[in-house]
Amino acid sequence: MNQPSNTVVVEDAGPARKRVSITIPAQAVTEHLEEAYSQLQSSAALPGFRPGKAPRAMLVKRFGKAVAEEARGKLLEKAFGEAAQAHALKPLSAPQLAEGFTLAELALGTAFSFSVELEVVPEFTLPAWEGLAIQKPTMEIADKHIDDELRRSSYRFGTPARMNGPFERLDRMVGHATVRAEGVDEPILDADGALTVVPAEEDGGTGPLLGLLIENLDKTLLGKSVGDVVTIESTGPESHEREDIRGKKLTIEYRIMEGERITPATNDELATKFNLASLEMLKEQVKMALEQRRDGEQAAAMREQATEQLADLVDFPLPERISADQAQRDLSRREYEMLSRGVDPALVEREMAAHRAESVAASQRRLKLFFILARLAEELGVEVSDAELNGRVAMMARQRNVRPDKLRAELTESGAINELATSIREAKTADRVVSRATVTDVPAEEWNKIVEARTAAKRGGSTATASTTAKPKAKAKSAPKSA
């Protein structure tokens, strides 16, 4: 005899949010419970009875509640999975019991009902995406660019030495950081080994600490010494991946435990390190690396223009709650995309801190772009091969100076390998759009002005933190910029 089907009702419960109400008929509940009790009877043992011979009534009396709860969990999971497949739901979050709903116990001969809510992938129609107008930033690599890169390399491959202060620009420090949020008694973060660097002058005094972009960090750290303590007042970005930081007034107490200064390597030392016979050969290698990086930045700039225009051409409701997991995944994708372009890890760290400082509107727009690119990739049949994934891992491994197989194992274990694959798929999808766009060359100087204005607008005029109040004395060594 065929088992009766579940009754499923799917309703809108908010933007990109569904309420799924399911009733499992009594016959299915009974069969599920009977199977669970039979498995219990065949495997359980009670004193005075041989295994599998204890009376069922006695077993149910002793273990029945636990068995029924386990059976209920499996039944709910199976019923929801079938409903999600039948109604083509694409969950973004795990289903949660609907507000005000409590689960009843499973009972023989009684139908079982439950109602859950979850965020889902929004429904929308892709806009026309061929023939977009895109600008291509152009720049010739000049001697100044090569000299600047050699300077950064001289710090990257220089000789570090411990020092106590006073700290100067590009000195690095490691310390103990305690972070408190307004209205919370206990610290929300207590961390040893917190690294920061006295910002370079060209960075405008702004630098990262604990993943936050701190304004006037140079004024706080210049002249300080090991043993000093500085206090930094900050406001957590609204789009931070940690919900207990979002929008909170933060007080960071940073005690400097160690200091380090880099003695820059000479050009001759750099040439020797890279097995090059002369300074001229070193400069040629640097020029080639800069041209490769420029081409990567060019491609990234055109991809961003393409995706931004797509976002302007279509509108659809986004989930009201951008969960911490979603925010973290977004940051991970952006980090992997930059690392895969050969951006120096120190600069990536700074850029990630800047991303955390973006407004909620900017964060929601990135989420919107994620959905658009995922749909477009599906429509265009864009996939990521294992060879492409391995190539990207190998590039990141070189930057981190680790073996590719070790890095791949770490990414796989943490689940980050999926975010890396997503970043590759998004880049390939955007490249398809760019390949069918109308492209106009724009000098780099002009392009930089456009980017600065766009960045300021995205961040809504807010930055990750501002005022800093110095307590006794703290000197920090900032990490050198690397080539």
Instruction: Briefly note the structural class of the backbone.
Output: alpha+beta
Q: What is the arithmetic mean of pLDDT?
A: 83
Termini gap: 72 Å
Order of helices and strands: EEHHEEEHEEEEEHEEHHHHHHHHEHE
* Total DSSP E strands: 14
Radius of gyration: 29 Å
Shape by Cα distribution: globular
Could you characterize the architecture of this molecule?
- This protein has 483 residues and is α+β, with helices and mostly antiparallel strands.
- It folds into three domains: 7-119, Alpha-Beta Plaits (2-Layer Sandwich), CATH 3.30.70; 133-140 and 267-458, Trigger factor, domain 2; 158-265, Roll (Chitinase A, domain 3).
- Helix content is 46%, strand content 19%.
- It has 13 helices and 14 strands.
- It has helices spanning 26-43, 56-86, 143-156, 217-221, 267-273, 279-313, 324-340, 345-356, 360-380, 386-400, 404-414, 416-435, 444-458, and strands spanning 7-14, 17-24, 96-97, 112-119, 133-138, 159-162, 172-181, 189-197, 207-209, 212-214, 229-235, 249-263, 438-443, 468-469.
- Strands 6, 7, 8, 11, 12 and 14 form a six-stranded antiparallel beta sheet that branches. A four-stranded antiparallel beta sheet has the order 1-2-4-3.
- Strand 7 (172-181) and strand 8 form a beta hairpin.
- Helix 7 (324-340) packs across helix 12 (416-435).
- The longest helix is centred in the middle third of the chain and has 35 residues, at 279-313.
- The chain is globular and about 85 Å long.
- The chain starts with 6 loop residues before the first strand and ends in a 14-residue tail after the last strand.
- Residues 461-483 have low confidence and may be disordered.
